[in-house]
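User: Teach me something about this protein's shape.
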Amino acid sequence: MEYNIKGNVMPVVEMKLDRGEAVFTQSGGMCWMSDGVEMSTNTRGGLMKGIGRMFAGESLFMTTYTAYENDSTIGFSATVPGEIVPVDLRGGKSLICQKGAFLCAEDDVNVKAIFTKKLSAGFFGGEGFILQEAQGEGTLFLEVDGNMVEKELEAGEVIKVDTGNVVAFEPSVDYSIEMIKGGMNIFLGGEGLFITTLKGPGKVMLQTQNFSEFAGRLRPYMPSGK
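Assistant: First, the predicted structure itself:
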């Protein structure tokens, strides 16, 4: 598979597939494709895996696109302004992703829902109990709101992040939620009650835009229907 990421504000990843090569995405993720590609939609791994993906913010069904002609093309576009980031998982690598970060992947990549290790992260993290783990011998494509910032944490190094700005991190990174200290900070700080703590070692991928927060700021200006 060859790929090319085009565009800046609303990017698209366009792939060139040879006969027999396949990629998959959640339902509705495809932007365009050539005549030499066929699609197949199912729960990909069974109903329980599909339900797990729903809790992780993805769709119940996944669609696989398989080329039956050489040099077939297919494109997957971002849903909000930002970046599309390729991650090569070959060699036994894996990545823990927040919900909404998955865009598409080669067919040899397995994406499954996992529970957060700590109940506090599930109750208060703003992302629910479910994250996603991606692993396999292929390339994963992540959708990043705004721009991506990558940090390599040393052993014991800690970074505290607004939950909506976390994209993904390596399994070696410890993920937890802590309450913001101080009454004035809680009520007037504008950051909510809780913040995500990531502790190294390992790579952390962050995004500069929290689209959920952005959408919340637009809500007062939307017609109420009354």
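Now, about its shape. The first strand starts at residue 2 and ends at 6. The two ends are 52 Å apart (CA to CA). If you'd like, I can walk through any region in more detail.
User: That's plenty for now, thanks!
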